Amino acid sequence: MTKQQTPTTPETAGPRPRRLTYAAGLTALEGLALAVGGVWVLVLGLAGDPDDRQQAVTLGVTLVVLALLPLLAARGLFAQRSWSRGPSVITQIMALPVAYSLLQADSIAIPAGIAIAAVAIATLVLLINPATTQALGIRGPGSAPDQK
Predict the structure, then answer these.
(1) Ordered mean pLDDT values, 10 residues apiece, the chain (148 residues)
(2) Max CA-CA distance within the chain?
């Protein structure tokens, strides 16, 4: 292959910044939490006595499948792949309304809402950090290389 077909990218150059590692870790943590929650709901739906077994199983499977997005994004962030920032940002944006709804409850769910909001905001800040975007090889608008 020629150099034009396999260009060197910043994705493979240099060490991974600490902020990117933290963002990948927090994204993986969210994915693991979704997977564990999904398995828990699924087991309770199958082994317990839920009001609606089909709804419990569906929710459990849905949570496990949704866990794939942040887990794949975390893997991509650890590997410094530029595509991985988008799914991670989407995960954080989806977590914020969940946190808000938990914060509106008058129950033990309030600490969970605080934790989810804190992790989502911290991860978003880490993902938009200039060191992270540079390590992922993401350029801003209007900064494309000149084609001559």
Answers:
(1) 46 74 96 95 87 90 95 95 94 95 90 95 94 86 62
(2) 68
